[in-house]
Design a protein that fits this description.
It contains ten helices and 18 strands. The protein has helices at residues 39-46, 97-100, 149-152, 160-167, 188-198, 210-218, 231-238, 254-263, 301-312, 328-336, and strands at residues 2-6, 14-17, 28-37, 59-60, 64-72, 84-87, 119-120, 123-124, 131-134, 140-142, 178-182, 202-207, 223-226, 244-249, 264-272, 292-295, 320-324, 343-347. Helix 6 (210-218) links the parallel strand 12 (202-207) and strand 13. The radius of gyration is 20 Å and the shape is globular.
Length: 348
């Protein structure tokens, strides 16, 4: 079968022929219906070197995957061939406290996981292929009626990651509060929708690109601001001088973190989601009092069930650019050039 594989660090991925996987005990093979292309894949191709991560090439890319159950390994129960499923992409040890809660991205014993602090497309073969081997059936979430694998695939990360970041701040997202979304790309455009679907907060979106701001407006943002037009002042003006109660930075550069720190309200949350490599200097006076600053990584399996339910009910719709598997390299090239709107999904 064909698969888009990262063969070595500092090299673009290549489409190659590999054997079709066969499930062992407890394992499941998925026929891939869609695999999302994530900006973090570009970091894997271009920014990392040997030893920086606890795993390395070669492996097939694609940590956002949905499809249909193709073959069941011995001992697997509760699933039938042909069932449409989404793949929960963080694969932990399965037995620690975090994994038992479904938070496998925060596994306490990563050395006992199939790959340390990774999963399919992150150290092990992922979904940019015709078939995907899932090491344990617990990583599969049946799709609710009305949701197809093409639209479910990007929700397993681009939907789940902002949902987790927003959900943890729900107590601060009251009808009188404001949420600021910095970066309206693959994750940010879904964050705007999640905020509108699950909270009554006002939503401000900031981006450099006009088409991204148009997308934010389309999905319900109350105010959209260009990053080139001194958005900090406009954010202060729009919030009565207080700042945003919850700031979600989906870029993570020095500039966006400075904007986040300069516009968050006292007692608010500043959540860094993007991995743009920026830093946030922290001192007693660098942010308003009692601002909570946190990073997040992915989300939990129960949260993925909730995300898929929102999508099936029409409350969460990923903006998709569809590519054939033969065009997967082009998808990443367009992403790197900043030419994509929403999320690229590769369909074998």
């Amino acid at each position: 079968m064909r698969a888009l594989r990262l063969l070595d660090w500092k090299k673009p991925a290549e489409l190659v022929e590999v054997p079709q996987p066969v499930p062992g005990p407890g394992q499941v093979v998925i026929k891939v219906g869609g695999a999302g292309a994530c900006h973090s894949d570009l970091h894997l191709m271009h920014d990392f070197t040997a030893g920086q991560l606890p795993w390395g090439p070669p492996f097939t890319l694609g940590h956002e995957t949905a499809g249909w159950v193709h073959r069941l390994g011995p001992g697997v129960t509760g699933l039938a061939e042909g069932t449409p499923v989404a793949v929960y992409g963080a694969w932990g040890c399965g037995s620690c406290d975090r994994c038992r809660l479904g938070a496998e991205s925060y596994c306490d014993h990563p050395a006992e996981a199939p790959v340390p602090s990774g999963g399919g497309g992150l150290g092990l073969d992922g979904g940019m292929a015709e078939y995907l081997l899932v090491p344990d059936a617990r990583h599969l979430v049946p799709l609710p009626p009305g949701l197809d694998p093409l639209h479910a695939a990007p929700l397993t990360d681009a939907g789940l990651t902002p949902y987790h970041a927003i959900r943890r701040s729900w107590p601060k997202l009251t009808p009188r509060s404001t949420a600021l979304v910095i970066g309206v790309g693959g994750l940010g455009h879904l964050a705007v929708q999640i905020l509108k679907a699950t909270t009554a907060a006002r939503v401000i979106a900031v981006d450099l690109r006009k088409d991204a701001l148009d997308l934010a407006r389309q999905f319900g943002a109350d105010l959209v601001l260009s990053a080139e037009d001194n958005p900090a002042e406009a954010i202060r003006d729009a919030t009565g001088g207080h700042g945003a109660d919850v700031v979600l930075d989906f870029v993570g550069s020095d500039d966006t973190l400075a904007l986040a720190a300069g516009t968050v309200r006292g007692l608010g949350d500043l959540t860094l989601v993007g991995i743009g490599g920026g830093t946030l200097p922290l001192s007693f006076f660098s942010t308003p009092y009692e601002v909570s600053i946190q990073t997040t990584y992915w989300g939990t399996r129960p949260e993925l069930v909730e995300v898929l339910d929102l999508a099936a009910r029409g409350m969460l719709t990923p903006q998709i650019c569809r590519f054939a598997l033969s065009e997967a390299v082009t998808a990443y090239d367009e992403m790197r050039a900043g030419e994509l709107q929403g999320r690229a999904v590769v369909v074998p």
